[in-house]
Each structure stands twice: as C-alpha cells, then as structure tokens.
Amino acid sequence: MKRGTSRDIRTANRYEVLRQIIAASPTSRQELAAATGLSLATVATLVGELLELRMITEVGFEDSAGGRPRGLVAVNASGGALIGVDIAETYVHVELFDLALNVLARAEENVRPVESRPEQMVGHVTAAVGSVVAQAGIEGARVLGVGVSVPGQVDRATGIAEYAPNWDWHDVPLLDLLTEHIAYPLYLDNPLRAVAVAELWFGAARGRGNAVVVNLGTGVGAGLILGGGLHRGVSNSAGEWGHTTIVLDGRLCHCGNHGCVETYVGAPGIMLNLRELSPGSTLLHPEDQTATIAALAQGLLRHDPVALEVVRNTARYLGAGIADLVNLFNPEVVVLSSWVAAALGEPLVAEVREAVARHALPRPMAATEIVLSPIPTDPACLGAATFALEGALQSVGQRNGKKRSTPARSRTAPPS
Amino acid sequence: MKRGTSRDIRTANRYEVLRQIIAASPTSRQELAAATGLSLATVATLVGELLELRMITEVGFEDSAGGRPRGLVAVNASGGALIGVDIAETYVHVELFDLALNVLARAEENVRPVESRPEQMVGHVTAAVGSVVAQAGIEGARVLGVGVSVPGQVDRATGIAEYAPNWDWHDVPLLDLLTEHIAYPLYLDNPLRAVAVAELWFGAARGRGNAVVVNLGTGVGAGLILGGGLHRGVSNSAGEWGHTTIVLDGRLCHCGNHGCVETYVGAPGIMLNLRELSPGSTLLHPEDQTATIAALAQGLLRHDPVALEVVRNTARYLGAGIADLVNLFNPEVVVLSSWVAAALGEPLVAEVREAVARHALPRPMAATEIVLSPIPTDPACLGAATFALEGALQSVGQRNGKKRSTPARSRTAPPS
DNA sequence: GGGGTTAGGAAAGGGGGTTTACGAAGTCCG
DNA sequence: CGGACTTCGTAAACCCCCTTTCCTAACCCC
Fold it and tell me: Which residue is closest, via its CA, to the C1' of D21?
C-alpha cells in the first residue's frame, strides 16, 4: 500500500499554485493564497521556488487599497517548452507549448494502416518532435520534457506499452525505443488519462477534487479525478469505461463483448446510430468518421431532424452511461471532452444533461454539473504535455542535499 | 477543494497500526513496522498512544533470535465498547462489540411496515441500544461510540438522512433525534459505506489501497476504497451502483428506471430470475426473500440444477456489472459482501469470476482478485461500529495542549 | 515627512516521519 | 558465572511541511 508522505503535500501544493498562476496569469501572492487556501507564507515559498526555476517571472505591481502594492507574477512563457505527442490509430499529432501552454508549433504525421510496427511509429514521433522543435526555434536545453500519449495499457514505471489494440502491440518497450532518438525527458501514458489531466489543470475540472472526464472520440473512456488527483488504479488502467456493458447482448464490440458503451457513443457507434435511423442519409460518409461527425454537427446547426434525432439517440445511451458514473462517483463535474464532444457541442451536452437527469439519482445529480470541455485544442496533446510539466515540477522535489561540501564523510569508524 | 494536512498522515497511520493489531492480535512492534512499512520509531510512538488510550495492552514477550525479547501488544478487549446499529427496512439490528470487534451482545427489533415514522425508528434504536448495553453489563462511560447505518443518502456533517427510499423520508434530522435519547457519540452513514469500511478494516480489503466492495443484499451497491480510504464523493453518495443500467429498457426498478443491476442481482431480482427460469420451483418462497435465498443455497449444496442455473444466470448479470467496475477502477480486489453473497457463497463467486473474466479487459482483470467477504457477522453492524472506532481514534488527534502535568501515569509495570 | 495601511519576508512553532545512538534485556559460550 | 554478542525499544537529532507572528518595505494620504 502506497504511503503518503509530507512531500506529496508539497508537490500537490506546488501543482495547485502553478495551475492557478497559469489560469489567471498576472496574479498576486495574495490572490493565490486566497484561491488555494494556503497561507501566505507557503504561497510565497512556492512562488519563490517557481521563480528560481524560471517557470514564472515577476511582471510588475498592482495597486493595493492604500498600502504597499502587490507584486504580480506571471508564467514565464519563454522559460521552457513542453511537447505533447498524441499517437492515434491514423496519425501522430505533436504540439510544442510554451509554459503558458500556448501552442508554438504543430506537426502531424499521417500513419498508414500498414505502418503499424513500433519502429515505424517511433520514426513518425521522432520526425514530428524534431519538426516542432525546429519550427519553434527552441534550443534543445529549453525543452523540459515530452509527454507521449499512446492508446491502450501503459506501464509508466517501465515505459512499456503493454497492449495497444489498434496495432496488436504486446509489451512494446516504447519508452526505450523513443529514448534512443529523443534526448528530452519522456513521459508515457494513455490518452484517457492525458485528457483527464489536461482537464484537471486547464479545463473544467480545475480546482475540483472529484471529476469525471468523459472522453468521446473514436474510442471512449472516462478519466477519473478523485481526491484532487488522477486515479490510476493498481496497474494504471483505471478509466476503461468504453467497454462497460450498457446493452446486454447488444452490438458486438471489437473487444469481443456485446453492448459496450463505445459501440453506441464512440464515433463509429454514432455512425451506426445514424445508419440505423436513416440508412440513406446524406450525412453519412461510410468510411469517414470525421466527415460524418462533422456533417452531423453541420446538421445540428440547421436543425436537421435526422441529425437531431441521431444526437438525441446517442445522448440517450451516453446519458444512461454517465448517470451510472454520477451515481457511482458522485463527482462535482462531468466533463465531455475530445473531438466528438467538441464537434457536437452544446446540443449534445444539453441532450445528455436531460438523459442523465432521467437516469441518475436525485442527490448525486444535484451535486453534479455536466459541461463541455473548454479546451480548444487537441486535449490529448495538451494532457501529454501536462505530464511533462508535472514531471518537471516533480523533480524539483528531489532535494539533492544542498549541503555542497559533503563534509567529514570520514567519520566512519568501521566496526566489526 | 479539501486540503490534505500532515495530520491526516498521522491519522491514517494510526488506523493502519490499529487495524494490524486487531488483525494479528498478539503482535510485536517489529511485526507492525514490517507490516505497515513505517519506521520502528513511528510505530513505537503510535503504539504508545494506543496504550495510553488503553485501547491496547502489553501482554507479554516473545523470544527473539538471541536478543532482547519482543514486547507483545494486543487489543485491550475490555478497553471500551463499540455499538453498531444496522437500520433496515424490516428490522433494526444492534450489536455491541469489544475493541477486538467480538460481538458481546446483540439485539434485534422487528419493524412492521406501518412503523415507518422516524420517531418510531428512533424508539427501536434506543431500545435496542439500551438492551445491548444492559446485556453486556458495560458501564456507559466505556461505550466509545455508536455507529448507525441507515439506508439512503446521509449527510454526515449535519446528521440528516436526506433521503431514505424505503420509508419516503426526506431530510430527517436523524442524528438530532437520536442524540436526544442516546448519550454516546454518534456516527451516521449508510450501509454501503459501512460494509466497505468493515471490509477495509477487518475483511478482504485490509491493506489494499484500491478495492471495490460489492454489497449484495436486498439492495445492491459498491463501496469504493480508493487510495487507502473510503471514497465518499462530493456529497457523500458515492457507491450507488445498484441503479447502474445493465439492460437498457430492462426490468422496471423502484427507482423509476429500467434495467438496473439491482433488479437482476438483488435478492428480489434473484427471486425473479428463479421465477422466470422455473415458475413453479419449490425453491421459491414468493413473499420471503430470505427463505428463497436460503433455499437456493441449500439447492446449491445438493447440486440442484435449477439452483445452479439461477446462480449461473445471476452471476452472468453480476459478472457483467463487476467487470465494468474492474475496468473502471482497476482495483486490487473485489469483495462480495452482505447476506446474499454470504448465503450463496463460493458457488456464486466461482461463477462470477468466470463471468467477469469473460467481460473485463485482460490487464485490469489480471490485477484483480474476486473474493467472498471473510466477515462472518452482519457487516453493516460491524462497519457502523467501525465508524465509531474511527471516530474515537480521530479525536485523539485533537491535541489540545498536552501541557498537562500528568506525568508518571501510575508507573504500572506490565504484568509479566 | 510622519502616520496609516498593506505586502512580503524571516523566524519561531507545531506536526509528522526517519535515522542514529544508546540503554535494556535477553542468549551464548568460555 | 560473567563477558560477548544480539536484538529490542526509546530518546534525541534531523529533515520536511505548513502556519503564525513579528518586522520591515513600500506606498498613500494628510
């Protein structure tokens, strides 16, 4: 059983303070203390650390009611760069962020179905990472880390992609392969958790101790924020919600079971919902998820009845599933994230809210908000970069002595 | 957002140490340190605290390989009493425990359906609590607390039963009502969480940071142990798993929805499974859940094909539901608890294991054990009493000065 | 240019856990 | 039978964390 140490408190507080600074960028220590609930002294210490790391800078002063002006700090955008890599079935998407998490450069590599070998994927990642660094004109030393999101089960400690269903990878030592080509610190995890962390730091889950981040893309999952941090489970595979049975003996899922949530509310599932409702619909682009979802989104805008009905139908499944999560976790907020959610937007959320309200118990429902992710870019990239940010921040904790002289080691009076 | 303080660490460690002592009763500080991962010094401090509280006592010595013997400590059974109250639809069950959590006295009050008013229920509880105290011949001052488990949504802070479906209670200030009649410290929560805590302290979840306690009774729920402690959610209603949709548009549930897990694997649901399979079965006692489940259990023992099939069928639903929990939480262990699980026992668990294995993803499945609760008595009573124990232990943390003279508290040399 | 006010830093203080040192209480063996 | 060796358990020193308190810095106003 993992034991919590007082160090963890410091780390959590450091995260919290930096989150707050990034969110409300020019801000004062006073404001930070109020927002985080920490004492002024602690905030000052943490701000001092971050200043020393050059992650933030002092940017001026702000009038205070008649007294000494408040010093303002802001993210030091040029204090370093973070890279987020989103590996998906058909593409590798890489973004380079400054410390304010603005995108400075982007690169995308298309991956053809035949290129499913790990080495090929590593090649794509390496190329794209090189590209964004070059584009942004950043010197290598300023890259604080690279977060990599790869689908499937990931062992963070060993950096092994234990199982990636898309390419039938088994126990691929991805971290080692990447390390050979990329010199920056690497952090590996899966998109589910990346998106959840992005939401925790920069999105709708910020400042919430309990949140569920529902990931609606080609696949479906639920990142769990519990007790203020990401819940990973015992083998880092928590959050696999896509294969929850929602219709016993329902649609066949590629996982081998029937009736998984994913087969109804993932992009292919939504296509199927559309096809079942209106087989000849012009909204349907048989081989193209992205186009079909985009067409549905367009349809919603012009109140196309078929589009509305498909969304309503999808929301019915999604609402039932989310209601289960609300009952089970009693979260403060449920965030709908990823590209399908972003595309279908508020109309989907509104339908989902209604559907959830029909299914969930009143008390947990009353405590829960259901919102769309406010994150405008690819949340998996952002989340992956956030892992890198967390990593960079974590290593601050590594108190490496500081007693430079290492005095009198000789004190050893060897016994025996 | 709740902030963790270093005090919480101490509390958690105190819990852990006491748990370990209760579990392995005569035990040494060495063993405790090894089991908890704490340093010897910390264990010694905590043991010292518990000794001073008279919750444990020194009970002798144990040979150590050639050196000073280890001092042994054990629970001081007579150091206090804890009372657990399990309020259910048709009965109020009260047990009085010593500090080793042995049952010293029991009382049961039957509740007739007409007696659903809170005052009547309070009367039953008061009577039963008085009864167990009298039976056990305990002086009032020795009762450390009374834990009360009441179905539905409970606000622990205010002690209000916000909603209890059985009796249509709304915002009943149960704690206040009980306080008028019961002088001991009171702790209120619901059976779901009581059972989970019982399992965490004394059952199959002991020492596990992540566990799911599936509660199979008339109602169904899932107590969540996450990060070493009970997960309550933002309004203390986490764990409501019974109304998870498992069959879209399935059986009508009293919650108003269709296809809830509870309607398939709760005791009434199992009866329905039986009725659907074999309408005229002699196993069926139409108006008596307890008798029907008992008959099924008997049937299993003699390999009655109908009983086997009913259990298999129930396990099919249950397995699908539990697989979802395994995927979602990635727990170390799933514990099947409460009277239905106890009655159907290993045959049910074996079927459930198979069913879960069919539905869950391989990786989380590999990390999860599915076991029957080892707790022999009413787990809700035990869990309620555990809340009282936690409460008593918590108030130790209230260091109010300590500048009290009280030196040399009676220099009692430990009895040889 | 003093008083009043507010910000921010330094020091003290209260928790917590661990490491180290040392006395206590046995065993082993000459 | 007593010293040497072992092992336990406590006390003290140390490090980490957060908060409270005190004091100085910096600005406003009169």
Answer: A41
Give the pLDDT confidence of B320-338 residue by residue, as tens digits. Answer: 999 999 999 999 999 999 9
CATH no., domain A79-194+379-397: 3.30.420.40
Put simply, whether B321 touches A (Cβ < 8 Å) is yes
Rounded-to-integer distance, Cα A284 and Cα A274, Å: 7
Structure confidence by residue, pLDDT tens digits, B78-125: 889 999 999 988 889 999 999 999 999 999 999 888 877 888 899 999
What distance in Å separates the CA atoms of residue A203 and residue A297, rounded to the nearest whole number? 22
Per residue in B365-387, pLDDT tens?
999 999 999 999 999 999 999 99
B28 CA to C26 C1' in angstroms comes to 16
Candidates A153, A210, A257; nearest CB to B234:
A210
Among the listed residues B191, B185, B182, the one whose alpha carbon sits nearest the alpha carbon of residue B154: B191
Residue type at B217 in one-letter notation: G
The string of pLDDT tens digits covering residues B138-155 is: 887 889 999 999 998 899
The residue among B99, B327, B59 whose CA lies nearest residue A260 is B327
B395 touches strand C (CB under 7 A): no
- Between CA B147 and CA B270 the distance in angstroms is 30
Q: Which nucleotides of C are covered by protein (CB under 7 A)?
A: 4-12, 14-20, 23-28
Asked if CATH classification 3.40.50.1860 holds for the domain at A6-75, the reply, yes or no, is no
At which residue do the structure tokens 């009382």 appear? B107
A208: nearest CA partner in chain B:
B1
Tokens of B98: 């010593």
Domain B79-194+378-396 sits in CATH 3.40.1080.10: no
The CATH number that domain A205-372 falls under is 3.30.420.40
Structural domain boundaries in chain B: 6-75, 79-194+378-396, 206-372
- Range of weakest confidence among A31-40, A119-128, B164-173, B215-224: B164-173
Tokens of A346: 């508020």
Query: Same CATH topology for A6-75 and A79-194+379-397?
Result: no
- pLDDT of amino acid A394: 82
pLDDT of residue A415: 33
DSSP-based helix, strand, coil % in chain A, nearest 5: 45, 20, 35
Chain A residues touching B38 at Cβ < 8 A: 3
DSSP string of A218-275? SSEEEEEEETTEE--TTTT-TT--TT-BSBTT-SB-TTS-BSBTHHHHSHHHHHHHHH
Average pLDDT of the residues of chain A: 89
Q: Using the predicted structure, report yes or no on whether residue B404 has a pLDDT greater than 60.
A: no
Please state, in angstroms and as integers, the Cα–Cα distance from residue B410 to each residue in A234, B52, B252, following that order. 47, 11, 65
Task: Give me the pLDDT at residue B409, please.
Answer: 32
More confident: A280 or A401: A280
Model's pTM, two decimal places? Answer: 0.90
Q: Spell out where A63-102 has E strands.
A: 70-75, 81-87, 91-98
Q: Are strands A91-98 and A103-110 parallel, antiparallel or unpaired?
A: antiparallel
Chain B 62-101, CB below 8 Å of chain A: which residues?
none
Q: Which CATH class is domain B206-372?
A: alpha beta
Measured between CA atoms, how close is A107 to chain B, in angstroms?
32
Helix axes B6-23, A6-23, angle to 10 degrees: 140
Q: What percent of chain A has pLDDT over 90?
A: 69
Give residue B413's pLDDT band: very low, low, confident or very high (50, 70, 90). very low
Residue contact B257–A358, C-beta within 8 A: yes
Residues A320 and A291: their CA atoms lie apart, in Å, by: 26
